[in-house]
Give the backbone structure.
Amino acid sequence: MVSFLLPNNEIIINNIAPTHFHDGISFSFWISTATAINDNITIVYFKEKNDGMSYIKINLRMEKLYVEINSKQCSFDFDIPLETWELITIHLIPNDNKTLILVNYGNNSKVADNNNNQEYKGCKIDCKFIPKYDVICVVNKVEQQSKNPAFMGPFFLSKLLDDKEMNEILANWPNTSLSF
């Protein structure tokens, strides 16, 4: 059985040390929906506590994933299969004065390996999120109620994940079909 977070039931994680962002992070989550996602879902939002101006916001709407860092944005097109749990991982990697953003999803695959069934996309944003103060993280926020909401399953925030770690996650988590 896979447990999930109900829409509009956000989780707040306080006091994430700023050093956790210096070498890059990965945020992974399982998502499932019975219909196309029409609502704007804030998957995760990071904000520096004492600053208020530095943030990362990751939204999902329709068939796009939007990553915004301090008002600069990029987006990724992809299709989430209906009635199936799908793993999506977002990697945020500081690189000079930019942030490299890698998004991967799909089962039985590797990060950045285009020789298999992995869907893999990347972009760069011309700014970095390197906080000086503790960070607040809000997970699973929906702006308005929906008749057919998406469900978020297990999620985790970690150091930057490599290919081996991603394969272990994919091998050890269920790929469950849902009945709606």
